[in-house]
Amino acid sequence: MHRPSSSRLGHTIHALGTVESTQAEAGRLAAAGAPEGTVVTACHQTAGRGRRGRTWLDTEGESLLMSVVLRPPIPPDQAPQLSLVGAVAVVDALHASAGLHASIRWPNDVMVGERKICGMLPEAATSAPGTLGHVILGIGLNVNQAVFPEPVRTLATSVRMETGRESDLGLMMESVLGALGRWYGRFLADGIDGVREAWLERSQSIGRRARCADGREGVAVDLGRDGALVLRTDSGEMLRILAGDVTMEAANAARD
Ligand code: BTN
Predict the structure, then answer these.
(1) Which of 23, 69, 118, 246 has most ligand 1 atoms within 8 Å of its beta carbon, as the pocket-test mutant?
(2) Does ligand 1 come within 6 angstroms of the Cβ of 120?
(3) What confidence tens digit (pLDDT) does each residue in 49-94 have?
(4) Is the peptide bond before 107 cis (omega within 30 degrees of 0)?
(5) 110 with 118: CB under 8 angstroms?
(6) How far apart are CA 164 and CA 149, in angstroms?
(7) Ligand 1 atom, smallest distance to 21 CA
(8) What global pTM score does this model have?
(9) Closest alpha carbon to 67 in 10, 117, 132, 6
């Protein structure tokens, strides 16, 4: 079946003021039948959701807070692949719109150097057992922060902190949606392989030492087609990490 090489995302944009979470708003719209490409943005979230049940904090008007309704014809267990698509797209958008050289920390944190500039949250809903109904891809991009509060002060950065300039949130959204549409179109047409290759090219995790919360550790050597991080332990064993907390050592701390 012929598929277009890019998908038009953002044909309908619900630009909201203060909400609990754009994920919840987009989820409601998707459950009511909103088509693929519907986008929800907000100026501020009172209960922003991060990965692994964490909260995602923002100060009004400083971040791009965005949730995109996607309806890919894939099985539910492949839904996490969409966050790889999103991370690759945000790296490209930051380069195109702000000249920034960002990279990806597994699985989908977008980083400038050792500081996080963007987080991604794919939330899937099944329509029937074993059938994916929709995925809400949440993107939180730090744009106009001049400083971050503790405890993320030294862990986070923003487009403004990296470029010295404020950016227009609307233009930044267009840039992210454009890149996301291109990479999502490629994912629909060709599957995960091209996206995986692009992820590896943009990754800062490969070659670094990683430690899982359960104590297992090794050097990251590859990304599986399912999005798993492949670690080689000191005894040469290969470990596949699909989910969970992984601490990546900083660049200058990696061992051979
Ligand atoms: C992470 O923990 O890195 C993922 C953060 C995702 C945050 C975005 S902001 C827009 C959307 N709405 C939410 O509540 N979360 C996502």
Answers:
(1) 23
(2) yes
(3) 999 899 999 999 999 999 999 999 999 989 989 999 999 999 999 9
(4) yes
(5) yes
(6) 19
(7) 14
(8) 0.93
(9) 10
